[in-house]
Specification:
The complex is a heterodimer of chains A (133) and B (542). Chain A is of the alpha/beta class and 133 residues long. Chain A is 40% helix and 19% strand. Chain B has 542 residues and is of the alpha/beta class. Chain B has two domains: 255 residues, Methylmalonyl-CoA mutase (TIM Barrel, Alpha-Beta Barrel), CATH 3.20.20; 171 residues, no CATH class. In chain B, 48% of the residues lie in helices and 8% in strands. In chain B, strands 5-6-7-8 form a four-stranded parallel β-sheet. A three-stranded antiparallel β-sheet of chain B has the order 1-2-3, with no helix packed on it. Chain B has a three-stranded parallel β-sheet with strand order 9-10-11. In chain B, helix 12 links the parallel strand 10 and strand 11. The chains are: A alpha/beta (133), B alpha/beta (542). Chains A and B meet through helix 1 of A and helix 4 and helix 17 of B.
Chain lengths: 133, 542
C-alpha cells in the first residue's frame, strides 16, 4: 500500500483565528493525507517537537496576524539546528504578494494565501512532498 | 445548514434559493404564507418599543436617535492610536471601539519573549495604566462610550479603564465602557483564551456584578455571535449560540444571589451582517423577540429594560474578499444597510482593505462615511422598522425564530454552553460548516463576485497600512520606565492581595483596580490568574 503523506497543520504564535487551519485540515484529510492539528498558541519549539514526535513529512503553518515573516524565519532556522530541515514547510493565511519573495528566500516554496482553491494547494503538496521512511 | 445555494436553470432563471440557515425561499409571498407560519400581528409584532420588540427597542427608532458609529481602531503605540481616535471623532464618529494587539489580548507584556513580532501589530499595545493615560488623552469620556475589544483579560482592562478615567477626573458613574468580555465565543472562534472555562466564566461574573454596583453606565459584556459566524456557523446558530452563552453568564451572576433585573440590562450583543440581506434582517428581528421572551420566560425578568436586545450589528469580515478589494466598499454599504434595516443601536464595518491588514485612515473613514450617507442622505431615519408587515420578511422572521429555538434546544440537551464548549461540540459543528461553506464557494453554489465569478480584469492594487517595528521598541522602553518609577514594593503587595482574593473566590475587581492604579502591568496581573486558575486546554475536535 502506498504510504500516506503525514502533515502537521500548525497555528504558531498568539493569533487565534483558526477557521482557515481547520478548513484546510479537513480538505487535506479528504485528499487522503494523515493530518495532525496542533491547536492554538503554539511556540516554534512546540511545533518542532510535535513534528519530530509525529514523524511528519510536512508542516503547514496558518498565520493570519501578519507576523508570518518573523515566525517563518525563526522556524526554518530552528529546523536547521535540529537537522529536520528535510521536512517541507508550507504556509497559508494573510500573506501579501510582497512577502512571497522573502519567504522563498527562507526556503519556503509552498505559499498559499487565503482564497487559494483546495485543488491547487493539494496538488502542490502531493507533487512536492514525498512520504519519508 | 451551512451553505447557501442558488440553483439556476439553463435560461438563467433562479429555480431554487436556500439560505445559509437552511430556509427555502419562495418566489412569491402572500397573506397565505403569514397564515401558514401562524403569524399573529399582535403577538409577533406589536409596536416598536413594545414587547416582544420585534420592530425595535425604541418606539421611534432612528427618529429619536441615530446609531452610534464605532469603527474598530487601534495599532502600534497608545500615542499613535490616540491620534487615530481623534481623527475618527473629528470626522463625526460617536463612539470608540478599541483594538488591542495580540500580546495584550493574551495578557502578555510587550517585553515578553512570546510577544516578539506581534507588539502593536493588529491593535494597540497596552502594558499598564500609563498606556491608557496616553490612549484616552483628550477624549471626552463622559460623552464618548468606549468599546474594549478584549476578552480573556477583560476584567483587568475594565479596571484599568476605570483607573484612567478617574485620573482624568471622570467619576465612575459617568463613564460608559463596553468590554467585549465574552470568553466562551473565544473558545469557539477567534481563539484569544487563556484560563479554563469555569474560572474564565467566573471572571466575567465578577465584572458583571462589579459593574452593577459600581459602574452604572457600563455594559460589562458584549456577547458575540459575530465571531462564531466568522468561524463558520449559520445565522441561526449565531443567535442560538450567543443566547446560550449569554444565559451561561446570567446564571453565573444569579448563582451569586443577584436579581436578574438588577444586572441584565448591561448585556449587549455583537452580531454579524454579511450574507443574504433578507436573512440578516429577519435574524435581527427574530433575535430581539426571542431575547425578550428568553428573559421573561426563562428568567422571570420584569423590568422592561431587561428585555431589550441592544447591539452592535456590523463588521461583515467574512463577507469581504481579498480578490478585487475595492468591491468590499460596495459590500460594506449593503452590510450597513442590513444593520440599519435590522435596527442596530451601534455599528461598525470592516474596511475594504482589511482582508489584507488593519485599515489605513482612508479606508476607515470610508466606512464611517458609509454610515453617515445611510443615515443622513438616503432616508434610513425616516420611519421605524420600514420592512414590517412585508409578507416575506414577517414569514422569514417567524421561520428564523423557530430555527433559533430548535438550535438553542440542542445546546440545552447537551447540558448548556459550558459543556458544549468543553466537549468541543460547538467547535466541531462550526468547523464542519466552515469546510462545507468553503467547498460550496469553490464549487460555485454561492457566487462571490471577483472570487468565483467576474474574476477578469487587472488586479486591484491597494495602499496598505505599514507595520512600524519601532512601536515595539518604544513600548518596551515605556514598560521599563514604568517599572523604574512605580513603588515596586507596593505593587508586589497588591499582586499578593489579588492572588489571595482569587484563591478565595472573592470578586477580584476591586483588587484589580488597586493593582492598576499602582501601575502593575497586565502581564503581572495575568500571571497571578494563571497561577491560581491554570490554562485552558482545547478539546480535540478531529
Amino acid at each position: 500500500m502506498e504510504k500516506k503523506i503525514r502533515i502537521l497543520v500548525a497555528k504558531p504564535g498568539l493569533d487565534g483565528h483558526d477557521r482557515g487551519a481547520k478548513v484546510v485540515a479537513q480538505a487535506l484529510r479528504d485528499a487522503g493525507m494523515e493530518v495532525i492539528y496542533t491547536g492554538l498558541h503554539q511556540t516554534i519549539d512546540q511545533i518542532i517537537s510535535t513534528a519530530i514526535q509525529e514523524d511528519v513529512d510536512a508542516i503547514g503553518l496558518s498565520i493570519m496576524s501578519g507576523a508570518h515573516l518573523p515566525i517563518c524565519e525563526k522556524l526554518t532556522k530552528k529546523m536547521k539546528e535540529k537537522k529536520i530541515d528535510d521536512i517541507m514547510v508550507v504556509v497559508g493565511g494573510v500573506i501579501p504578494k510582497r512577502d512571497i519573495h522573502p519567504l522563498q528566500k527562507m526556503g519556503i516554496e509552498g505559499i498559499f494565501p487565503g482564497g487559494t482553491p483546495f485543488d491547487e494547494s493539494i496538488k502542490w503538496i502531493k507533487e512536492h512532498v514525498k512520504p519519508r521512511f | 445548514m451551512g451553505v447557501a445555494k442558488y440553483v439556476k436553470n439553463e435560461k438563467d432563471e433562479v429555480q431554487d434559493v436556500i439560505l445559509q440557515s437552511g430556509i427555502r425561499i419562495k418566489p412569491l409571498y402572500t397573506q397565505k404564507d403569514l397564515e401558514e407560519v401562524g403569524f399573529d400581528s399582535e403577538k409577533d409584532l406589536a409596536l416598536p418599543g413594545e414587547y416582544p420588540f420585534t420592530r425595535g427597542i425604541h418606539s421611534l427608532g432612528y427618529r429619536s436617535r441615530e446609531w452610534t458609529t464605532r469603527q474598530y481602531t487601534g495599532f502600534g503605540t497608545p500615542k499613535e492610536t490616540n491620534e487615530r481616535f481623534q481623527l475618527m471623532i473629528s470626522h463625526g464618529q460617536t463612539g470608540l471601539n478599541v483594538a488591542f494587539d495580540l500580546p495584550t489580548q493574551m495578557g502578555l507584556d510587550s517585553d515578553d519573549p512570546l510577544a516578539e513580532g506581534e507588539v502593536g501589530r493588529v491593535g494597540m499595545a497596552v502594558d499598564s495604566l500609563r498606556d491608557f493615560e496616553v490612549a484616552f488623552r483628550d477624549i471626552p469620556l463622559d460623552r464618548i462610550g468606549v468599546g474594549l475589544t478584549i476578552n480573556a483579560v477583560a476584567s483587568i482592562m475594565l479596571a484599568m479603564f476605570q483607573a484612567a478615567a478617574e485620573r482624568f477626573g471622570y467619576s465612575k458613574d459617568r463613564i460608559s465602557a463596553t468590554p467585549q468580555n465574552d470568553i466562551l465565543k473565544e473558545m469557539i472562534g477567534r481563539g484569544a483564551w487563556i484560563f479554563p472555562v469555569k474560572p474564565a466564566v467566573r471572571l466575567i461574573g465578577d465584572t458583571i456584578e462589579y459593574s452593577m454596583k459600581e459602574l452604572p453606565r457600563t455594559n460589562p459584556v458584549s456577547v458575540c455571535g459575530y465571531h462564531i459566524r466568522e468561524s463558520g456557523c449559520s445565522p441561526v446558530q449565531e443567535i442560538a449560540y450567543a443566547f446560550q452563552i449569554a444565559n451561561t453568564y446570567i446564571e453565573e451572576v444569579l448563582r451569586r444571589g443577584c436579581a436578574i433585573d438588577d444586572f441584565v440590562r448591561g448585556f449587549t450583543f455583537n452580531l454579524n451582517v454579511f450574507g443574504n440581506l433578507w436573512e440578516q434582517v429577519a435574524k435581527f428581528r427574530a433575535a430581539r423577540k426571542l431575547w425578550a421572551k428568553n428573559l421573561r420566560e426563562r428568567y422571570g425578568a420584569k423590568d422592561k429594560r431587561s428585555l431589550l436586545l441592544r447591539g452592535i450589528f456590523g463588521g461583515g469580515g467574512y463577507g469581504m474578499t481579498k480578490a478585487q478589494p475595492e468591491n468590499n466598499i460596495i459590500r460594506g454599504a449593503y452590510y450597513a444597510l442590513a444593520a440599519a434595516l435590522g435596527g442596530a443601536q451601534t455599528t461598525a464595518l470592516c474596511s475594504f482593505d482589511e482582508a489584507y491588514t488593519i485599515p489605513t485612515p482612508r479606508a476607515a473613514l470610508l466606512s464611517l462615511r458609509t454610515f453617515q450617507i445611510l443615515m443622513e442622505e438616503i432616508g434610513l431615519r425616516d420611519t421605524v422598522d420600514p420592512l414590517a408587515g412585508s409578507y416575506f420578511i414577517e414569514t422569514l422572521t417567524k421561520q428564523m425564530e423557530e430555527k433559533i429555538v430548535e438550535e438553542m434546544k440542542r445546546v440545552d440537551e447537551i447540558g448548556g454552553m459550558i459543556k458544549a464548549v468543553e466537549t468541543g461540540y460547538v467547535q466541531r459543528e462550526v468547523a464542519k460548516q466552515a469546510y462545507d461553506f468553503e467547498k460550496g464557494v469553490q464549487r460555485g453554489d454561492l457566487i462571490k463576485v471577483g472570487v468565483n465569478k467576474y474574476t477578469e480584469g487587472e488586479e486591484m492594487e491597494v495602499e496598505l497600512h505599514e507595520y512600524r517595528w519601532e512601536s515595539a521598541e518604544e513600548q518596551i522602553q515605556r514598560i521599563r520606565e514604568v517599572k523604574r518609577e512605580r513603588d515596586n514594593r507596593k505593587v508586589f503587595q497588591l499582586l499578593k492581595d489579588l492572588e489571595e482574593a482569587a484563591r478565595e473566590d472573592k470578586n477580584v475587581m476591586p483588587y484589580l483596580l488597586e493593582c492598576c492604579k499602582a501601575y502593575a502591568t497586565l502581564g503581572e496581573m495575568t500571571k497571578v490568574f494563571k497561577d491560581v486558575y491554570g490554562e485552558f486546554k482545547e478539546p480535540s475536535i478531529f
